[in-house]
User: What shape does this take?
Amino acid sequence: MPRKGENIYKRKDKRWEARYVREYRPDGTPKYGYCYGKTYREAKQKVMQAKADILACRPVPPAPHKRRFAFYCDEWLQLNRSRIKESTYVKYRGMLDKHVKPRLGGYLVQSLSSAVIEQFGHALLYEQSLAPKTVKDILTMLHAIVRYTCKCFSEPLPMVEIVYPKVPKQEMRVLTREEQVRFVQYLLEDMDACKFGTLLALLTGMRIGEICALRWENVSLTEQTIKVNATMQRLRNFDGEAAGKTKVVISEPKSDSSTRIIPLTDYTVKLCNRVWCGNPDAFVLTGETGSYIEPRVMQQHLKKYTAACSLAGVRFHTLRHTFATRCVEVDFEIKSLSEILGHSSPRITLERYVHSSFELKRSNMNKLAAIGY
Assistant: This one.
């Protein structure tokens, strides 16, 4: 028979439940654990063993088979939070909250299968009409969570195979030489700090976030270099007490290789001298220390500039691709170009950023004339 104060009682389903204090939360309130048995004796033996494990500093094994997949999604994200950038954390959390947990979060882990994951990916592609690249990113993250979840179980889980969608290669917009000349002439007319920042991106291949975060202290007019050591982003704000849903964050660049020093041409140095504000702590785009221009505002300025020049389909990243293409056209050494762009390897530069113009293709074809073609 149960004794008073044991916290063992018979449930309506005829099982016996024994409750014990598993641990204490930071605020001092207890967090309980539960043991179940078909008889009072069985439940009591289990709870005594659980208490003994706690006293011996042995972790009490949870019941992972009863946890839903959403639990492991949250736990995986929390465990990885300290080793990833804030922007990556925001991206992962957004994908989990918006896509993964609403569709897969209620599944028991044992119920996840290759078919379930395939249906999930198919729904993202054809029901929600997400881009194949976005779906691939979500499935890649999902694969990492599934691998982590498998490690939480003592017994092997069913193997889950994830099929990734084929991401079509998109030809990036690159300014022709005629378009570039027209665009540069427009930017030079009544050039202000925003026009200068746009032109600087075209002349150095810097990313929009790097341009927005650039301060004059990182521009050396004597050594003719720019040191890239920061980037600016607007990220979703998960702080419930904050006023806005998003916030502007200035942080380290995209990757270790993105922290770099870019040599400047004499022409670029002359432009820098024209807009140099005299304050090394000031942002290049504003000339002030306390105010900045964020990336989405720069995108709006670029949209206005390109409309005035009758240029269609031009985004800020187009300037980066255009810079890389011009470098290739003058036989720029690929390893050097890769480092200037902040890539981890020349392969990325060749596969993603090198766009051969039609004029360059014709010039190379004409070289065949030397061997009788």
Observations:
- Residues 201 and 319 are 6 Å apart (CA to CA).
- The beta strands are 8-10, 16-24, 30-37, 219-220, 225-228, 231-236, 246-251, 260-263.
- The chain has a mean pLDDT of 87.
